[in-house]
């Protein structure tokens, strides 16, 4: 399958048309941004890590009955995906207080939450991705009530599956971001699952092995991404 016209270029990936009207090619980038694009940089090898890790985790979820947009890996930094009508809502699932949630609620980072917390943000660079609730989603006609219920149910099931998967690899799934879209009348999982979109802490040491190393200038960013890829896929290099 070959790339056609470039349809979209975002902060982390490019999306191309293909000859198959039902499929796109997603090409991951090494570019890295944080704080609404105020901080910019590059993480060597991030394109490969995010692509291969996402592919593996999509396979894990598919095995558990969760439909995703993943079709196949094309190159180490590219995959073929189903053509989705993206629902412009970011879904965040939190298991441990960290980042913005800890700051807003006055919680110490690392505080375990009594239950998974589901949050929603409007995908809008102009508005800096404001937090919204289920009523907002319905009123703005981003998704109907049934779709919202499906998204929440899927997000919690995904969390359950991924928490167990990462735990076996001595990783604590602190929180993560998901995106969903419509495909042939169904809501399915899209986007990616990677160190860019997940907070992953080493289970024993608590060391951060995710994009926070870039955000907070902690160093060893590339090494941390590779370590997560190794634990998720078994790949050494």
From TrEMBL:
Name of this chain's protein: Phosphoribosylaminoimidazole-succinocarboxamide synthase
Family annotation (PANTHER family): MULTIFUNCTIONAL PROTEIN ADE2 (PTHR43599), SI:DKEY-6E2.2 (PTHR43599:SF3)
EC nos: 6.3.2.6
Domain SAICAR synthetase/ADE2 N-terminal positions: 6-231
Catalysis performed (reactions): 5-amino-1-(5-phospho-D-ribosyl)imidazole-4-carboxylate + L-aspartate + ATP = (2S)-2-[5-amino-1-(5-phospho-beta-D-ribosyl)imidazole-4-carboxamido]succinate + ADP + phosphate + 2 H(+)
GO BP: any one term: 'de novo' IMP biosynthetic process
Pfam families attached to this UniProt entry: SAICAR_synt
């Amino acid at each position: 399958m070959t790339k056609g016209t470039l349809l979209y270029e975002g902060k982390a990936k490019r999306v191309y048309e293909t000859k198959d009207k039902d499929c796109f090619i997603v090409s991951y980038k090494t570019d890295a941004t944080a704080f609404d694009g105020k901080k910019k940089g590059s993480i060597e090898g991030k394109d490969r890590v995010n692509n291969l890790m996402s592919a593996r985790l999509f396979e894990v979820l598919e095995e558990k009955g969760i439909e995703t947009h993943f079709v196949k890996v094309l190159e180490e930094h590219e995959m073929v995906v189903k053509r989705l009508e993206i629902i412009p809502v970011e879904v965040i699932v939190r298991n441990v207080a960290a980042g913005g949630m800890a700051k807003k609620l006055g919680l110490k980072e690392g505080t375990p939450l009594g239950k998974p917390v589901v949050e929603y943000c409007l995908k809008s660079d102009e508005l800096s991705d404001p937090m919204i609730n289920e009523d907002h989603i319905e009123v703005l006609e981003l998704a109907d009530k049934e779709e919202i219920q499906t998204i929440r149910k899927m997000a919690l099931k995904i969390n359950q599956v991924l928490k167990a998967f990462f735990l076996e690899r001595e990783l604590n799934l602190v929180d993560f971001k998901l995106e969903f879209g419509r495909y042939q009348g169904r809501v399915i999982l899209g986007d990616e699952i990677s160190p860019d979109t997940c907070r992953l802490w080493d289970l024993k040491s608590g060391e951060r092995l995710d994009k926070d190393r870039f955000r907070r200038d902690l160093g060893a960013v590339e090494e941390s991404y590779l370590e997560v890829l190794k634990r998720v896929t078994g790949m050494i290099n």
